[in-house]
């Protein structure tokens, strides 16, 4: 007999659940910086940090590596993103370990998207103040002014593909309707833009064939996808995913009529297949882990796919013609093995190597000469990163006995039977369809240096452990597993206590992790001694009512419908349990956030303040869903560290 979730059973029986308090009702509307007054922004402007704290944060932010990068078609240049100027900008290397040339500048986040196959143009994306309404631009590969393709207020313009002859650029945009994306073709030479597809839905360009045929994907839920083919003449052919809830990721294969597809339709884990005329033929064998990503070069010579093995990335290569595996030169100590971009002919490919002891390093592999060359030297000024603590994979038991995986970083002085009881910081990731991973982390090392044990759980609902784990918290089922949040603290207090001394435990997270923090501090009050929430949802109902239209549809499939599931959403909202809040709480938020409206942070702060709780609020006027600018990152992380030192040590 299948198990009925607790809330669903109560609804079936007609049992009263609870009366939603006034604090659970909406008292704000809209999103973005215009939804709050200048006085509110000024009131909650982050305060300056003490110089010694700021210096330490700034030094850790200098331990970084650029993005993996995009290779020029001839393999002689590499374009990549780097935040060394204070915000993400585009840089260029004209050879291995050369001095980088800055291509873009200013305060707006700018990222490289593609290089045209003829090697003449770089395609870049530019966003303003974290609004997540990016524009698309072209820039000559030698540098110079940006040429706008499209950048409109309150519109997302998303890059899709470049034609093999470098004539056309394809992109999608919600410029017709805020909750629907049309497909456009842009002529690079003439600047002419033509709309070629405008069916309702959250559409994106998945791939482009040499003959101009487009593979389009429609996002129908947090995990579900539908795929169609759009031919040059406008004919649309449906492929798969229509009316389903399975996850698909697809692109064109090497042979006509063939697709490469990653899906969990036929089992618990995401697996890679060849698709032809409705038939799926496995490429990868039976795996106990998900294929988390895959791709090919433009020539469709080689397939690269990455398997998520308990949080560690393992990337493999296959010859698409013969189907035989190909060896890649990965070092033995790599936590993460990642492939970036390949040249159109497939000869060169970028490889990124992540270890626990150094910033990520980027290489270029030459399939013809079998030579591996490092192109980017990571930065680690004034720091011996060899001393950094390696995350260990451990687990804790949920109340129903399910082992919950967690990565643990312990300061050396906290190791061993004779070591003192150290304070613990539990970090819940965002998503919720995301995953905490091991690897190099200057910011977590900063907390380790301050004497904290840092714990990264992957509670049920996290990605990387198969479909059953991922779907365990969908809708009403969230009430059955949200207790994983409380169980982490219960285990730590019990298992890590010594001689009657129980560790103090704090909780932190961003986005859904911020929501998890607020739930930990309210629904599970007493489990944690202090909490810091960044861009977290305080009320799932008001969040869904006010988030950006393109987000609302996807989030409803994860949390529930504001009309049909109103009671459940309130049952799962931190503001519903505000009367229980007792421990100190820090809230941080970007004013321009299109995902979690700034009103979520304000209403949580005001509700907590009205109950006499110890609560702080920081609002960054020039940020969106998380801090992107260096000075704001230093302020946010500095105050989080200060807050936990104040309340846990």
From TrEMBL:
Sorted alphabetically, which InterPro entries does this protein's record hold? 6-blade_b-propeller_TolB-like, AB_hydrolase_fold, Peptidase_S9_cat, Peptidase_S9A, WD40
In which domain of life is the source organism classified? Bacteria
Cleaved signal peptide residues:
1-24
The Peptidase S9 prolyl oligopeptidase catalytic domain covers 440-649
Which terms are listed as keywords in the entry?
Hydrolase, Protease, Serine protease, Signal
- Say if the entry is tagged with keyword Hydrolase: yes
Any Pfam family matching the protein: Peptidase_S9
Protein name, UniProt field:
S9 family peptidase
